Amino acid sequence: MPEKSISRFTRIPTALDDLVLIERRRLGDERGFFSRFFCTEELPDFGIGRIAQINHTMTQAKGAIRGMHFQKPPHDEAKFVSCLVGAVFDVAVDLRPQSPTYLRWHGEILSAENARSMMIPQGFAHGFQTLTESCELIYLHDKPYAPGAEGGVNALDPKIAIAWPLPVAQMSERDRGFPML
Ligand SMILES: Cc1cn([C@H]2C[C@H](O)[C@@H](COP(=O)(O)OP(=O)(O)O[C@H]3O[C@@H](C)C(=O)[C@@H](O)[C@H]3O)O2)c(=O)[nH]c1=O
Description:
This protein has one helix at 173-176; strands at 9-13, 20-24, 26-29, 32-35, 53-59, 65-71, 79-85, 87-94, 105-111, 116-120, 124-130, 135-141, 150-152.
């Protein structure tokens, strides 16, 4: 079969407009598996046509929360978020005032086993809670890091009411200080 006819990705819509879950297909054999991680040919309309940065994080504690982060315009970015070690509850909040799903959140489990990634579009805040120890995430960003443009929504904001699956074990001081809506 010609290589191009193999579809490597399954798109799974979510309850939020433009927020898509991607399942990376694994081609397995007795050695393990081969998997394409990202593809501008197969995902051309996908927000990340150009990869400006790839970032890698490790979070030690189970129950730790990072987020909810975004970059303000003109540095607003799309990111393709994947978990390569462990498992996380990954969450996006729609911050686009014109959107029918404005201020709604959506969460999905991303794990090393399920090979799922979240495509976070521009205009969303992103964060996650670790479900295991020593979780490693990889982010593909379509814009460079712009420290002066960092924005945040408080992950514990009762107006958004994200149903974090575990008690909060750890948050950075900066994340705890983000304002409530
Ligand atoms: C986000 C970022 C941080 N840094 C630096 C700033 C700081 O010294 C250190 C840790 O930064 P933070 O505490 O913001 O890292 P962290 O909380 O892991 O930030 C990340 O959170 C998740 C939820 C996201 O969605 C990511 O886009 C990113 O914002 O790394 C960079 O050099 N480049 C970057 O792109």
